[in-house]
Amino acid sequence: MKANCWTGRNSVEVQHVPEPSILNNRDAIVRITSTAICGSDLHLLDGYVPTMEKGDILGHEFMGEVVEVGPGISHDRLRVGDRVVVPFPIACGACASCRAELYSCCENTNPNAGVSEKFFGHPTAGIYGYSHLTGGFAGGQAEYARVVLADANVLKIESDLSDEQVLFLSDILPTGYMGADMCDIQRGDVVAVWGAGPVGQFAMDSARVLGAEKVIAIDKEAYRLDMAEAQGYTAVNFESADVRSALLDLTGGRGPDKCIDAVGMEAVHGASHIHLYDRAKQAVRSETDRPHALRQAVLSCRSGGVVSVIGVYGGLIDKFPAGAWMNRSLTLRTGQCHVQRYMEPLLGLIEQGAIDPTRVITHRLPLAEAPTGYDLFKNKQDDCEKVVLSP
Amino acid sequence: MKTDIRSASGLRHDPLVRGLGWASALLGVPQVAAPAGFARALGVERPSIRHRSATAAVGVRELAAAAGLLARPHPAWLWGRVGGDLMDLAMLGRALRNHDGRGLGRTVAATAAVTAITATDVYAAVTRTRRSTPMELTATTTVTRPPDEVHAFWSDLTRLPDFMAHLDEVRVTGPRTSHWRVVAPFGRAVEWDAETTQDVPGRLIAWRSVDGADIDNSGEVRFTPAPGDRGTEIRVTLRYDLPGGALGAAAARYFGEEPHQQLDDDLRRFKQIVETGEVVRSEGAPGGKQARGEFPQRPARPLTEDELKEALA
Ligand SMILES: NC(=O)c1ccc[n+]([C@@H]2O[C@H](COP(=O)([O-])OP(=O)(O)OC[C@H]3O[C@@H](n4cnc5c(N)ncnc54)[C@H](O)[C@@H]3O)[C@@H](O)[C@H]2O)c1
Ligand SMILES: [Zn+2]
Ligand SMILES: [Zn+2]
Predict the structure, then answer these.
(1) Strand, helix or coil at B77?
(2) Does one domain contain both B213 and B256?
(3) Do the domain assignments include residue B4?
(4) Number of separate domains in chain B
(5) Of A153, A261, B101, B238, which is least packed with CB atoms within 10 Å of its CB?
(6) Is the pTM of this model over 0.90?
(7) What is the ipTM of this complex?
(8) Is the four-CA dihedral A145, A151, A153, A156 of positive or negative sign?
(9) Which residues in chain B have Cβ-Cβ distances shorter than 8 Å to A72?
């Protein structure tokens, strides 16, 4: 089958690989009908996430039709022919983390837990196509994928919603929603979102659904900010405006009540000397992440507010404004998305028309053109916001 | 790693060790029963109180060595004998220096005899002491099942190889006995018989290898209820007495620089089996329990037919 593989720093290639087979009793094989490229894939592409191996299949946002079901799965739960969306973190549903709905922290699904534990203190869940730190699972930018503990994870789509309407339930829609959910939004809240990529856009939509009074989008890509403005959100371009004064101005001097970092470890920054400092440290791997958006969110948030981090960080950061965080009673909340917690309720919101996930899709390409898709998305070419691939 | 004296069950049938045990007994009995007569036999014509009590004390020491060597043979007893011999030689040396002439021949003969015995003891102690490396591993985890259930799972010893990477097979051979076989990385088949020494439902299981094991070892697992109804806390302790020589070296190599990591991984797999039914495999680490967490791994992409056969074998 065809699959999009990581072949080294900044290079991906569609290769011919064997078709997946059942390795565990509760596996299912899915014939992929739609798959997408995520901002997280860019972190892997750039080599900022350790433990990638040449030849790894990328992709953790995918859906399709079940073509084979392992012997450990009951027929009532899943059968051949079912149409399913696959959440990106692999959960077991039985460990303490899963019982607490912290699915991305599942204790049982990462065969490389020992390594993950060394990086993170405690291990995290397995994730498809997302380095060996999260298990070394083949990803979903392919024609077929093996879905692990399928009965505990997949969301069956029984209505006639299109792939494009439900595909993002695998990751970015729940992720954006969790970003807003962790903000504990109250009446009158102003929510500022750093990053107007697909995840940021869904964080904005979710903040509105959850009752935010005003939503502010911060980015430097005019076309992405336009996309947010078209939804009625207020745009701040950090290249042409000073973010702090813009936010003070927009909030009567209070600062946003809630701040969402939807940028992560490869942020770029207007203030070039700090950016150079972080780039240099990141280049020699003495700092793994560039946390501009996070620093700015912490400094901008009103006292007692919440900073909700859904942008991905992989390792260590410098110059974290701990004084601002501590002295101004800020709450920092974060996590890889607990997708399984949000899939069903969000499916409901899509069915009701309260959220339209298709609005972020700008490019539709065949799987064979995945490298072009990466190029467009990474380099913000052709006003690219989100690429959906069809195998 | 420390070097230690190994309790060698093979000493029980060692003629030299048994001979020395009996020699101790033959010497100790008259020393304790008739210390004055014994001292005279060594050339001390009129043994003082001090002489007599010293002789009795040496007798007690000989009897202790005899009991040890015959009943619970251990190289420590042989070294104890060497120590005693040196004390005796010192005493005889003093006697020779302070001698008034009478019975000198007997003292000289006794000194010669003790010197010969010392040589034998040193030989026995050196050759019967095997250098070994004791290794104790501990690991702990929590599983979301009640202690009784977790205990029941663990007490089926035949399932241990499902999650313990180094075990090939455990066969139950009797109500409290089992036969254990360890996988190939040791370079040769390593097997032992074990007995279950404690088995308290919901609380504890303990076992140890019986005499004659290639690698003396023991282990125990304790189960305690986790607070807040979170299931069961499991604490595992394994003790290995890694022998010297090639076998010990192979074992040490197998356990690697981080032997604890392996037991942690064993326990993680146990948790996976109890909570999800089996050990989770990925394309990068398809070998299940055989996955050694070694990097670089195979790439995260489906396996070829051959790789599949190997991984699922
Ligand atoms: N927590 C999760 O479970 C989860 C899931 C999916 C994605 N993510 C992460 O969310 C982040 C966003 O994903 P995406 O798909 O939208 O990626 P993206 O790369 O398309 O979006 C990032 C956006 O941030 C902007 N940006 C860069 N520096 C900035 C700065 N200093 N201030 C404000 N904006 C800045 C970029 O211009 C870009 O538009 C990534 O880090 C991704 O890994 C997290
Ligand atoms: Zn993603
Ligand atoms: Zn779990």
Answers:
(1) helix
(2) yes
(3) no
(4) 3
(5) B101
(6) no
(7) 0.93
(8) positive
(9) 277-278
- The CA B175 to ligand 1 mean position distance, Å, reads 61
A25 and B278: CB-CB below 8 Å? yes
Q: What CATH superfamily classification does A2-171+337-390 receive?
A: Medium-chain alcohol dehydrogenases, catalytic domain (3.90.180.10)
Give A142 to chain B, closest Cα distance, Å: 10
Residues B108 and B157 in one domain: no
A274: left (phi over 0), alpha (psi -120 to 50) or beta: alpha
Which residue from A56, A94, A149 is facing B301, i.e. has the nearest CB? A56
Q: Are A117 and B261 in contact (CB under 8 A)?
A: no
Q: Are residues B267 and B148 in the same domain?
A: yes
**Interchain proximity A21–B291, CB inside 8 Å:** no
B3 lies in a domain? no
* CB neighbourhood size of A330 (10 A): 20
pLDDT (tens, 9 = 90+) of chain A, 391 residues, equals: 999 999 999 999 999 999 999 999 999 999 999 999 999 999 999 888 889 999 999 999 999 999 999 999 999 999 999 999 999 999 999 999 999 999 999 999 999 999 899 899 999 999 999 999 999 999 999 999 999 999 999 999 999 999 999 999 999 999 999 999 999 999 999 999 999 999 999 999 999 999 999 999 999 999 999 999 999 999 999 999 999 999 999 999 999 999 999 999 888 876 666 777 777 777 777 777 788 999 999 999 999 999 999 999 988 888 899 999 999 999 999 999 999 999 999 999 999 999 999 999 999 999 999 999 999 999 999 999 999 999 9
Which residues contact residue A380 at a Cβ distance below 8 angstroms, ignoring those fewer than 6 apart?
A221, A223, A224
Which atom of ligand 1 sits closest to the CA of residue A312? 41
Chain A segment 321-350 residues within 8 A of B by beta carbon are none
A258 close to A185: Cβ distance less than 8 angstroms:
yes
* The one-letter amino acid at A24: N
Number of alpha carbons in the 13 Å side-chain half-sphere of residue B228: 5
Do B203 and B165 have their domain in common?
yes
Is residue B240 within 8 A of residue B134, CB to CB? The reply is: yes
**Shared domain check, B138 and B103:** no
Residues B146 and B126 in one domain: no
Please report, in angstroms and rounded to a whole number, the separation of the first and last CA atoms in chain A. Answer: 10
Chain region(s) in chain A for CATH 3.90.180.10? 2-171+337-390
Is residue B244 located within the same domain as residue B266? yes
Q: Is the CB of A40 under 6 A from ligand 1?
A: yes
Contact B301 A17 (CB under 8 A): yes
Please tell me what DSSP assigns to residue B147. Answer: H
Q: Delimit the CATH 3.40.50.720 region(s) of chain A.
A: 173-334
A59 touches B: beta carbon within 8 Å: no
To the question of domain A173-334 being in CATH 3.40.50.720, the answer is: yes
Instruction: Indicate whether B110 and B151 sit together in one domain.
Output: no
Domain that holds residue B251: 134-275
